[in-house]
Amino acid sequence: MGETQLHLISTGRQPVGRFARIAKEIQAYVDFFHLREKHLSARQLYQAVTLLIENGIPPAKIIINDRVDVAWAVKAYGVQLAFHSLDVKVVKHSFPEMAVGASVHSLKEAREAFQDGADFGIFGHIFETSSKPGLAPKGLEELKCVTANTNLPIIAIGGIKPSNCREVIQAGAHGIAVMSGILEAENPLQKAKEYRQYLGGRNS
Predict the structure, then answer these.
(1) Cα dist. 51→39, 57, 88 in Å?
(2) Which sequence positions are flagged as catalytic?
């Protein structure tokens, strides 16, 4: 993962068709689109990926949450593994060409994920967010601790707005992941452009 990354993760609350339409509109500004649709069956998830591809999103920009089988079947860029998923080392051993992300919540977990062969980790939540009510955020200092003490590229998530993007990147994150900040915005295209502008890099 080279320059600063912008990842968009589906909320699970919107119809997949709407997610696909928004993805089509903003794809020039987003590096990766994550399908995080826990309620969908493997067949439905495959159909959702097909819909993304039909809307112009290349498989190389698609990451599937949890379902390694679907990610492999559609030749997606990779899979994002959670605590209930297959172990990172199992997936990397069986699918060495597939990028594997791991959800990590501490320096210890980040180091373990790197040792097991993960290609990147999603760490958070960094700031207060309505999706994690009552749960204290990790904050920038803990993010700095993780990024400074592991070789695992970290994608930060949670309460990240265009205005605080640069603080997150300065704390060592390789990129950010956004959900409602773009998908539930009044103008998703404008919001995606704002994130990209603050992150810098291409299309800024």
Answers:
(1) 17, 9, 28
(2) 125
